[in-house]
Amino acid sequence: MLSLLIALAAQGAPNRLPPAQALPAPGAEEQLVLQPINELFAGMAAKDGARILAQVRPDGRLTSANGTEIKTTGWADFAARFKPGEGPALEERLVGTPAIEIDGNIALVWSPYIFLMDGKISHCGIDHFDLVRDQGRWKVLNITWSKRTTNCEAQ
C-alpha cells in the first residue's frame, strides 16, 4: 500500500489517502460483548439502578472527559442517580459499527455515541468500554467518554 501511495505522489496525484474501510458487522462473540452495553443503556432509559448494576463489575469506574475537566465516579454512585419516573426521558445510542477487540476474557468497545434527553440530542462524543468476562458472562468494568455539544447531528 505504501508503494502505491508513493507512486501516486510521484505522478502528481493529490495528497489523499484511500477511503477508510468500513468495520465488519459484529460477529457472534462481538454481539455477546455488546449485550451488557445495550442492557446498561436500557437500564439508564428505564432509570433502573439495579438493572444498570447487573451489567457491571462493582469495582469499575466511569470517567467523563469534558474539555479539560475530568470526572470519575463509581458504579454504585452512578446507579443511585437513576430514579424511576424522575427527570427527562434518557437515551444513549452507539452510532455506526463500533470497534470491538477481544482477547480471551477482556474486550474493549470504541464507538461514537449520541445522548438524547426527551428525544432531543443533548450531547455526543466517543464511548470507550472496558469489559471482562466474569464467570462466563461479559460485564462492563469501565466506561470513559468524551462529551461535546457541537457537530452531534452528523453522528
What labels would you give this structure?
155 residues, alpha+beta, Nuclear Transport Factor 2, Chain: A, 7-stranded mixed sheet, 4 helices, 7 strands, 25% helix, 38% strand, globular, disordered N terminus
Order of helices and strands: HHHEEHEEEEE
Name given to the CATH architecture: Roll
Per DSSP, the total helix count is 4
Gyration radius, rounded:
19 Å
Specify the helix fraction band. 25-40%
Distance between the termini: 29 Å
* Structural category: alpha+beta
Overall average pLDDT: 88
Question: Regions with pLDDT < 50 over 5+ consecutive residues?
Answer: 1-10
What is the CATH topology descriptor? Answer: Nuclear Transport Factor 2, Chain: A
What is the molecular shape?
A: globular
- Give the strand content: 35-45%
- Total discrete domains: 1
Count the strands? 7
The major beta sheet can be summarized as:
7 strands, mixed
Can you tell me the CATH class?
Alpha Beta
Descriptive overview:
With 155 residues, the chain is an alpha+beta fold. The chain has a single domain (26-146), classed as Nuclear Transport Factor 2, Chain: A. It contains four helices and seven strands; from the N terminus they run H-H-H-E-E-H-E-E-E-E-E. Strands 1, 2, 3, 4, 5, 6 and 7 form a seven-stranded mixed beta sheet that branches. Strand 1 (61-66) and strand 2 (69-74) form a beta hairpin. The two termini are 29 Å apart.
